[in-house]
Design brief:
Blueprint lengths: L5 H23 L3 H13 L2 H11 L8 H18 L2 H4 L3 H24 L8 H33 L8 H30 L7
Helix pairs in contact: 1-2, 1-4, 2-4, 3-4, 4-6, 6-7, 6-8, 7-8
Pfam family, one: DUF2238
Organism: Desulfitobacterium dehalogenans (strain ATCC 51507 / DSM 9161 / JW/IU-DC1)
Protein name: Membrane-spanning protein
């Protein structure tokens, strides 16, 4: 059972109230884009708790700190990035978040697979570890692509503009996320091989 810590709930409520206040201010000032971004951020902050609930229903163990990490990441991306315009003010903010997302999604996938997959006896430990690394990399790249689809869809359905630079913005986001994911997955595999070098065989 994945527990929901009180500290995480308090942090999430603080974030929700912060975004709500911004949304009310945007409504009062008829700033429709900020209002749309605030509504979107409030909805997204609930997403980690929804995933936690679904994981509990499916008896799937999530990584420790998943809820807190998810809530903080969404707040950094939506509130600071979109609402507070960090994406425009700091050229590296978008790259930083997508790079961090690449690392976190690989670690998330590795934890889920290690906790729920069982190695068949015919498969060597080295090949199983390589399989986990490759699959976690693919998972991370797929999640990065979904993020870009989410931004594109949001621009169509809501009065917002999350895709700032068109194709160049999309590809730089995908590349930064994929590169950090590749480094993380490769690092996991080669560190494992180094630690088990005496008995490693492909």
């Amino acid at each position: 059972m994945n527990k929901t810590g009180k500290f995480t709930v308090v942090i999430a409520l603080i974030f929700e109230m912060t975004v709500l206040i911004n949304g009310i201010s945007a409504l009062w000032g008829k700033q429709w884009e900020d209002l749309g971004l605030s509504a979107l951020a409030m909805a997204l902050l609930i997403l980690p708790f929804l995933l936690n609930y679904l994981a509990n229903r499916a008896e799937l163990k999530l990584p420790p700190g998943f809820l807190l990490t998810g809530v903080v990441f969404i707040f950094l991306a939506q509130y600071f990035g979109e609402i507070r315009k960090f994406y425009q003010m700091l050229w590296w903010w978008d790259i930083f978040l997508h790079g961090a997302f690449g690392v976190l999604s690989v670690l998330f996938a590795l934890y889920i697979m290690q906790s729920n997959f069982k190695k068949v006896s015919q498969l060597s430990d080295s090949r199983f570890t390589l399989f986990l690394a490759i699959l976690s990399l693919c998972f991370s790249i797929a999640c990065s692509a979904l993020w870009e689809m989410f931004e594109f869809t949001g621009d169509i359905l809501l009065p917002v503009k999350m895709v700032k630079g068109g194709l160049e913005d999309t590809m730089s986001d995908l590349l930064s996320g994929s590169l950090t994911a590749l480094i993380t997955a490769a690092g996991y595999y080669f560190i494992w091989r180094f630690l088990h070098r005496e008995k490693t065989k492909i």
